[in-house]
Amino acid sequence: MAEQLRANINNICVYCGSNVGSKPAYAEAAIELGQEMVRRNIGLVYGGSSLGIMGTLANSVLQAGGRAIGVIPKALATREIAHHGLSELIVVSSMHERKAKMASLSDGFIALPGGLGTAEELFEILTWAQLGLHHNPCGIINVDGYYDHLISYIDHAVEQRFVKLIHRQMLLSASAADELLDKFFDYQAPLVAKWINRSES
Ligand code: AMP
Predict the structure, then answer these.
(1) What average pLDDT does the chain have?
(2) Domain that holds residue 170
């Protein structure tokens, strides 16, 4: 099954910070993810910026000989400083169009450490999975425990019956890229839509 799914992951969309964060480990994880994606012949789809973890990741992919597609809204192209060395830079008209375009190009979704924009993008794609709008794997690379609090929050929401366990299980996590990508290849989306069995936890 893993081999069968492997053929279906051509591109992965990575959400990550437009800043570098406080620890070198965050950028190192981005470099490692980029190299691992290229090793597995997986293309990168991301927000198109040259800044922060975003730029580090794209450079890692390009330096390893891989393909990196950036999707950036026109209004952000200057502020975030679009990366002009990419395999392709797609300029769109709005943040919504950016997210929809990134999703349509991708067969999986990963969040590296980042800020509010990263969290918003991760939660949106997870809620699309929860609604059955896509069936692709979603995961976080929990570098140095950066996402421990976010994981605790989701577990709390399950405990309090705002999130079903089956939907919580849609969020894969690992501390390193190779481990997360292995999980992606084994992933099978549950067939339970959000509005079915409402009374179950
Ligand atoms: P951040 O994690 O805040 O550094 O942002 C990472 C990426 O998310 C950047 O490319 C931002 O343009 C993007 N971003 C920021 N805010 C939003 C938002 N409300 N919706 C979608 N993307 C956003």
Answers:
(1) 92
(2) 9-185
Distance CA 12, CA 97 (A): 18
Residue 193 lies in a domain: no
Question: pLDDT-based confidence at 24, cuts 50/70/90?
Answer: very high
CA of 134 to the centre of ligand 1 (A): 21
Q: Does the residue 192 lie in any domain? A: no
Residue 110 CA to ligand 1 center (angstroms) comes to 14
17, 35, 65, 67 from 62: Cα distances, Å:
18, 9, 5, 6
CATH number of the CATH domain containing 37: 3.40.50.450
- Answer yes or no: pTM beyond 0.90: yes
Q: CA-CA distance, 102 to 116, in Å (whole number)?
A: 18
Q: Are 91 and 34 in contact (CB under 8 A)?
A: no
| In-domain check, residue 199 | no
121 lines ligand 1 (CB under 6 A): yes
